[in-house]
What we know:
Layout: E1 2-3, H1 9-23, E2 33-34, H2 46-54, H3 71-74, E3 78-80, H4 83-90, H5 96-100, E4 102-104, H6 122-140
Helix pairs in contact: 1-6
Amino acid sequence: MVCLGNICRSPLAEGVMRHLVNEKVLDWQIASAGTGNWHVGQAPDKRSIAVAKNYGYDISSQRARHFIASAFDEFDHILVMDKNNYRDVLSLAETEEQKKKVRLFLTNEAEVRDPYYDNDLFEPVLLEIEARCKEMLKELNS
């Protein structure tokens, strides 16, 4: 799961998907990262932590990571929250196989809105991420 700073959207997606995968007892590796490196090592945004907690997800122990090219070798799917970050991730891909791993998190070219500058977006973003994680779990586990 990849967004810009790895403190709002992608930690929510990581936390929700990890929770759902653990409930199903699947052996999947779930992680998140940001295309920017300015928050590396920091906890998710306190608003992301709070909204996640309100819905039963604990993301408080996650720490921001920077997306690096070795992720292409580590993961089967690289799911990106918006088109700008999609382009940034694709620019690091060296092969067609790596490029095929990258796709937008939402379907139909939709983007997950960045709630960083709007407190009222955190809950709708979490609900959108949760719904998509549940869909993906069915798609990838069938």
